[in-house]
Amino acid sequence: MKDKILLTGVKPTGTPHLGNLIGAIDPILNFSKTAQKTFVFIADLHALNFVRNKENLKRDTYEIAAIFMALGLDLEKSVLFRQSDIPQVPQIASLLMNVTPKGLMNRAHSYKALVEKNTSAGVDPDDGINMGLYTYPILMAADILAYQADAVPVGKDQKQHLEFTRDIAGSFNHLYGKDLFKLPMPLISEETGIIPGLDGRKMSKSYQNVIPIFCDEKTLQKSIMKIKTDCKLPNEPKDPDSSTLIQLYTCFATAEQTRQMRHLFETGGIGYGDAKKMLFDVMNQKLTSPREKYTDLIHHPAQIDAVLEEGARKARPIAQQTLEMMRRVMIG
Ligand code: ADP
Ligand code: TRP
Known about the structure:
Layout: E1 5-10, H1 18-34, E2 37-42, H2 44-47, H3 54-70, E3 78-82, H4 88-96, H5 102-106, H6 109-120, H7 131-134, H8 136-146, E4 151-153, H9 159-176, E5 185-187, H10 217-226, H11 244-252, H12 255-266, H13 272-298, H14 301-330
This protein binds adenosine-5'-diphosphate and tryptophan.
């Protein structure tokens, strides 16, 4: 990873939760430790196909930026910025449209899912689908190709978008000259799996079962107390593999602590109430210090603005170079 350029985008569509932290943010931070350079941006343009409230967009943008800053993204070798601060990216997307087959967009999972939903509801197949959503993968290809990224840490759900980016870059190279664009690789971290929410289903904003990353200590405690368990008594053996508590505990505790907790479950050595207290302790221990940094940043948005502006100042000339290369080979 040493000589690799890493890039990823995070959509500002609601307060990030522990599922996002473990499944997306932590892997980005880990990969970025060994990369030559990392670009992390808040994909506000991508959110526009359904976020209609600019205040929410702004709040979520600050929250994501503050989370990365509080969790220690190394700003010496990483560039943190807002997608919409780089006007070259939508221009690149607009040029890429011309080498992107429409059929590729028709095959996008998220578009197809909406078409299927409309069809089974008996309404027009494209009902409620705007062009921002339809062309979403082209804007994402522009994000990635603008900075000639080698590798893109993403969740499994984004794998197809990376395949599209490679297809679009390949089509451009085929038409205008080989090796103009690098073909980026997805970096999908498999180990974490799906983090369960308070009700045991996948933690997701859409299920309202989330624990926000930096909620205050009281809220964290209350949320943990709400995690659904079965009715087993403290001295009854419990199955660690099907327990949401154990799954979350594993993400925050040491291997030895996890081994001990699993043993207590299997032997009926602990009740759910005490297990929840221990879960709170390990979580809170990890989150307390970054939470303090985060709270400070959120109350001083000018500090976040300064970092995002500095990031945009570094990112813009790189995207400009890509745009100029495209103009040169496409327009002359
Ligand atoms: P949500 O389901 O809350 O809307 P997003 O779709 O915005 O979450 O998720 C952004 C990224 O966070 C995903 O690509 C995925 O990698 C990660 N992620 C989200 N929820 C979870 C989860 N419960 N467990 C693990 N990773 C998750
Ligand atoms: N589509 C990604 C998501 O929904 C966000 C995103 C936008 C992105 N542009 C990107 C991710 C470029 C990686 C690279 O989560």
